[in-house]
Amino acid sequence: MVSHKNTPSEPKKELGSPLASLTSRLMAGLVDWALSSALAFGLYLVLYVGLYALGLEGVETATQDSRGLTIVLVAVLLAPWLYFAMLESSPLQGPIGKSLLGLRVVTRGGSRITFGHATVRHFAKVGFLLIAGYLLVAVGSPLAIGLGVLLTLTLPSRLSAHNALTRTAVRKESSGSL
């Protein structure tokens, strides 16, 4: 009897289109981080102006400074998370940079990820970036950041660390859309 299952010596065949190249993922990432940073700055401005419109006159400077820091933290954490999680779980299946390049964020089975799944994926990505940044400072060499790229290039699945951890993939679907 012939088995139709993949044997350990055969690579597992994924459903759907091929994985996106590292170059296209990095280009899309640059666009998306620029857009999410602009959203964070816009959110910061709205919150900052709103807070001062409520009136901080007569409030001591230390309280103003702590409120300002809180606004910055909320904007820096909230805007990118919502940008990535909402768009990756939307029918676009990816933020604007990925969509422009025809890339889709999918589960290993090829289906759309949920908002919760996209949230875990986003914070896994942030966590790995923080680790790379720490290694960059601790080791003092840009090679520390290259470890993630090296890992992506050497893994048989060609998945980045956050995709491997969250069981997702970025696939090339088309020439680009929006």
Describe this protein's structure.
The protein has one domain (22-172). 61% of the residues lie in helices and 6% in strands. It is built from six helices and two strands. Strands 1-2 form a two-stranded antiparallel ribbon. Helix 1 (22-53) runs antiparallel to helix 2, helix 2 (61-88) packs across helix 4 and helix 4 packs across helix 5. The longest helix has 32 residues, at 22-53. It is globular, with a radius of gyration of 20 Å. The model is unreliable at 1-15 (pLDDT under 50).
Structural class: mainly alpha
Quote the beta fraction: 5-15%
What's the mean pLDDT score?
78
What is the H-and-E element order? HHHEHHHE
Oligomerization category of the chains in this entry: single chain
What shape does the CA trace take? globular
Largest sheet: 2 strands, antiparallel
Terminus-to-terminus distance: 48 Å
Radius of gyration: 20 Å
Return residue spans where pLDDT drops below 50 for at least 5 consecutive residues: 1-15
Q: Let me know the number of strands.
A: 2
* Number of individual domains: 1
Count, helices: 6
Helical proportion? Answer: 55-70%
**Strand order, largest beta sheet:** 1-2
